[in-house]
Amino acid sequence: MPSTPESLARPARRRGVGAVLVAVYGVLAVAAAGRSVYQILDRFDEAPIAFSLSAVAAVVYVVATLALALGWRRVAWATIGFELLGVLVVGTLSLLAPGVLGLDSIDPFGREATVWSAYGAGYLLVPLVLPVLGLVWLARGRGAPAAQAAAEG
Amino acid sequence: MILGFTIAQIAVAVLAGLLCAGLGLAGRGPNDATLGAIALVEVLLLAQIVIAITAPAFGNLPTGDPLEFWVYLVTAAFLPIAGVIWALVERSRWSTVVLGVAALAVAVMLYRMEQIWSVQVA
Fold first, then answer.
1. Residue contact A27–B79, C-beta within 8 A
2. Does B114 have pLDDT greater than 80?
3. Mean of the per-residue pLDDT values for chain A?
């Protein structure tokens, strides 16, 4: 496709490897959102702090997915950075001091497990690896519509 | 759920996921083989929906929460559809990898569904 103004105006059609990042983020956003909504509806009083954090994480994943898909770089930096911080802090707390989060169990597959418990072990550690890949991708100047057009032009 | 069927279904989803991820990384755009593999994953998910609706009538009840189970199953059934739409909109090698991601996510979700149905206690 020649680099016409029309093709520049529709960068979302060609994202390169970033498309895979968006897809994985989308799946994780759905997984985290589905589980946290279910836990909050079904058993919020069991671990209100952990489940609230889980809901926050789910919203951040949804926003990060949108930011990556639409090329909002500043939003992507903020949300992905927040995720990395979240998975490290909550992951560490869930293993060393589960009581702080109101958790009775450190089982990453248990009924109180959330997306960040034990560094996301219940999600095959995807929540730990993904923000690192996302930040690397952003740092390499990808994800901006202008940069994409230049790289692919 | 029927354990044997679920194991076969997970195997198909894993193989379809590896096939799509591999062919995508090798530079292939979505083609009949990869879209066909995803279609097979979807057909098996629809069969799983029929099984999950009818099984309780034959005394095969979930030990876990049916609501949690159905959230997983319905979400999983939408993943291949979303992947195929993605692949038709953007016919690049990365869309083939995305099909693989969808199939592997379905495999993980099926594992969770089997746990909820036969291991987990609500």
1. yes
2. yes
3. 80
Q: Distance (Å, rounded) from C-alpha A30 to C-alpha A8? A: 30
ipTM exceeding 0.85? Answer: no
Going B31 to B34 to B40 to B42, the CA torsion angle's sign is negative
Per the CB < 8 A criterion, the answer to whether B30 and B69 are in contact is: no
Could you tell me if A119 and A91 are in contact, meaning their C-beta atoms sit under 8 angstroms apart? Answer: yes
What is the pLDDT, as a whole number, of residue A76? 94
CATH value at residue B80: 1.20.120
Q: Where are the beta strands (DSSP E) in chain B?
A: none
> Which residue from B121, B119, B101, B109 is spatially nearest to B48, judged by alpha carbons?
B109
Q: Which chain B residues contact residue A15 at CB under 8 A?
A: 90, 94
State the smallest CA–CA distance between residue B60 and chain A in angstroms.
Answer: 23
Residue A2 clears pLDDT 60, i.e. is over it: no
Give B70-75 contacts, CB < 8 A, sequence gap 24+.
Answer: B71/A34, B71/A38, B72/A34, B72/B109, B72/B112, B72/B113, B72/B116, B73/B45, B73/B48, B73/B49, B73/B109, B73/B113, B74/B49, B75/A30, B75/A34, B75/B109
Asked if pLDDT for residue A141 goes beyond 80, the answer is no
Domain that holds residue B110: 3-118
Q: Which of A7, A27, A41, A107 to mutate to test the interface with B (most CBs of B within 10 A)?
A: A27
Is A19's CB within 8 Å of B108's CB?
no
pLDDT at A152 over 60: no
CB contact under 8 A, A20 and B94: yes
